[in-house]
């Protein structure tokens, strides 16, 4: 009897389980159907992609250099006794940088000074001789005047027959002798004057020799030609300095310029006065400067020519810094979008495009430079005329549907 009652009970349980199972499958199917429907998003802003004229530019790399760089070298050959400046030192104009062995030069100065003293002594002797000759001339002229007066008096006495002709002729002969003595004294004065002139020339020559010797002695000291900073030192104490070989390299501070190699294809686009947008990241400097110099001769290896532009005073600028330069070459048409339309996913940028059926599609794009405040150029991925989301993109998803009226 127990078995008869258990069989119908088991059959009822089986039917109940089957009904429960069928009910679960229907609920899953309904859920799946509901999840397949796209989400409807509202509260977004959209715009049509358009083209605009943007600057056509070329990015170039340059460097900051000192406008004036001095190569300081020795004018004589000699061993360096002391080196008083190091790389990085700021020096003043005429500051002593190094000293060279000057013993031989000092000896030459002493010899030249001794020669000058000897020439001056010779000049004094010649001047004394000229003074003595002039005194002799004065005495001879006095005697001649006396002889001339005596000759005139005796001539009158001869005419009055107060003296004999022999006495007269003796007086006349004395006058002739006095005139001869004057001529001889004048010759002595002229000769003494020539000796003085020769001695003066010798003194001048000796003084020039002294000046030259002192000038060469001064070359034993190497001085800074201008105020600036030592950027290179190429000699140490004990080394031999030779004429023409640079011992120090000094750049003048406060006058910097941009040196920019430019492709030869742009030779017609860069002239004096062409504006250059310069950015020196290391110095925190950004500014526009005009081209001040264009080197006509190009580099045959790199096919570039050199352009220079003076830079304004800026606390952070230093020679050798890297400069990023933007050269404007005109304008071109480009596809641009608001920066708010760009959505960053990983390392890629994209935008939500409204496609057929008002559905949103996330499309990866390649961006370019910022063309204006809040706008960026699109190099690839979008075309003019397409409709994109520009506001509320944080709520957008790929495949979502835009609410009606948006």
**Average pLDDT, to the nearest integer?**
86
Q: What is the number of strand segments?
A: 23
Rough shape?
A: rod-shaped
Helix content: 25-40%
Number of domains: 4
Q: State the order of secondary-structure elements, H for helix, E for strand.
A: HEEEEEEEHHEEEEEEEEEEEEEEEE
Rg, nearest Å = 54 Å
Q: SS-based structural class?
A: alpha+beta
**Strand coverage percent:** 25-35%
Give the termini distance in whole angstroms: 75 Å
Major sheet summary line: 11 strands, antiparallel
**Spans of 5+ residues with little confidence (pLDDT < 50)?**
1-35
Count of helical segments? 3
Fold blueprint:
Elements: H1 2-36, E1 40-41, E2 45-48, E3 50-66, E4 69-73, E5 78-83, E6 90-91, E7 96-100, H2 103-159, H3 165-218, E8 221-223, E9 228-233, E10 240-241, E11 246-251, E12 256-263, E13 275-280, E14 285-290, E15 293-294, E16 304-310, E17 322-338, E18 343-345, E19 348-355, E20 359-372, E21 375-380, E22 387-391, E23 401-402
Helix pairs in contact: 2-3
